[in-house]
Amino acid sequence: MADLAARLSEIVTPEHVLTGDAISDDYAHDEALTATPQVPAAVVRPGTTGEVSGVLRVANEQRVPVTARGNGTGLSGAAVPATKGAIVVSFERMNEIIEIDTENHVAVVEPGVSLSQLDEALASHRLVYPVYPGEYSASLGGNVATNAGGMRAVKYGVTRHQVLGLEAVLASGEVIRTGGKFVKATTGYDLTQLIIGSEGSLALVTEAVLKLYPRPEHQATVMAPFPTLDEVTGAVPKIVASGIGPLVLEYIDMLTMAAITAHVGLDLGVPQEIRDRALAYLVVMMENAHAERLDEDVQALSEQLSELGAIDVYVLPPQAATQLVDAREKAFWVAKANGADDIVDVVVPRAAVPEFMAKVSELAQTHQSLVAGCGHAGDGNVHLSVFQADPEQRYKVMRGLFEVGMSLGGAISGEHGIGKEKKRYFLELENPVKVELMRRIKQAFDPNGILNPGTLLD
Ligand SMILES: Cc1cc2nc3c(=O)[nH]c(=O)nc-3n(C[C@H](O)[C@H](O)[C@H](O)COP(=O)(O)OP(=O)(O)OC[C@H]3O[C@@H](n4cnc5c(N)ncnc54)[C@H](O)[C@@H]3O)c2cc1C
Questions:
Q1: Whole-structure pTM over 0.90, yes or no?
Q2: Three-state secondary structure readout of the chain
């Protein structure tokens, strides 16, 4: 270890190699509920791509496992160091916005830039990077590695739809550039897309070229309580088909709505008599460059929601709308505070959400568990908290949820990733031919298996 630390110190200076008590607990975990924390042997904080390259050369030579770390907000245990002998490469110092190119509508960022930092910088240019996962302290490097999604995916897609190119360092220390400031290329395999979502297991991202969009000035948020969850989820494909192009289309079940609004002390002004009848809520946010067009859309949406069975329709004042979206983004913390034992983010085709939710309810009853949640209904991504203290019963519920989701044409995780937490289910349920192909891809990128071992694949 002393030899390794000395070699790393030569590359990044001793001040940026932490060992022993200098390593704070934060580096031992992310926000996953069930992954076991692991303190690494060292934390290295490179400041340049050259330093990342040097660190990986040494790690590869000495066969030391390396786990990249953005801001540790991940929900799959992928940022938890693989073993006590591993090193964490933390991108906290590589946090420069290199360029905001207003002509090509791209931003070039270092991986440690946070979503909130980028958003603040873009506001004065009236531009927006449209991927908004619920935790704005997350880094762009982490977003790329997890293919982060969030509420706005129904309109803008997820991270992989907004990344035009990358600079990345391979396990060998070699540096590659993929893509660039252009929207199309048919020039061999798409390495950008392969690295996106690979959870730090193929390469370390040192720069990303991101698509930007004009920032629409006007937003409106409509909330509709429904008598059943089935009616809420059934309404979603029809709203998408109407062509209003929602920015956000979320469902929140009754239990979760009560918990998140109580958590932030938010009163949405829904009369008790309506709350008593509502089993679920739909929240639809829209945006437009023109106020009149937005008003027309709000009107049309309100009428449609009533026709689809909403008990009532509320156009929320801007402050209440912001508070509700903030509260929804805190759903994870509320579930955690209330003792959730695990969370899932299964994705299914959006028209299959009602069938999926019916099966979830059956599974919960069979295994005497409480399963509650909310979700990015517009893109079929259902976020559920599973309350079941017994690990065996919980495993059955979780596996059942994933099996049902996959049988409906979906996938185990829409945006949080597989990491260490969902790996068991992934390896048990995914097509073995695909898993084997992934192993061979991993082998080609990282022959010695130093990059985030134990995440995604064994
Ligand atoms: C309250 C809350 C709400 C959330 N809401 C959402 C949501 O709506 N949608 C969503 O998608 N996610 C959500 N998340 C999850 C989380 O914010 C995302 O997964 C985010 O992308 C993680 O970024 P990070 O910087 O914290 O990465 P970390 O947790 O530090 O790392 C995540 C993964 O990325 C890898 N990594 C980090 N940096 C690099 C790099 N430079 N190169 C290669 N690999 C790297 C790590 O090794 C790890 O595998 C939420 C989390 C919380 C706590």
A1: yes
A2: CHHHHHHHHHHHCHHHEECHHHCCHHHHCCCCCCCCCCCCCEEECCCCHHHHHHHHHHHHHHCCCEEEECCCCCCCCCCCCCCCCCEEEECCCCCCEEEEECCCCEEEECCCCEHHHHHHHHHCCCEECCCCCCCCCCEHHHHHHHCCCCCCHHHHCCHHHHEEEEEEECCCCCEEEEECCCCCCCCCCCHHHHHCCCCCCCCEEEEEEEECEECCCEEEEEEEEECCHHHHHHHHHHHHHCCCCCCEEEEEEHHHHHHHHHHHCCCCCCCHHHHHHCCEEEEEEEEECCHHHHHHHHHHHHHHHHHCCCCCCEEECHHHHHHHHHHHHCHHHHHHHCCCCEEEEEECCHHHHHHHHHHHHHHHHHCCCEEEEEEEHHHCEEEEEEECCCHHHHHHHHHHHHHHHHHCCCECCCCCCCCCCCHHHHHHHCCHHHHHHHHHHHHHHCCCCCECCCCCCC
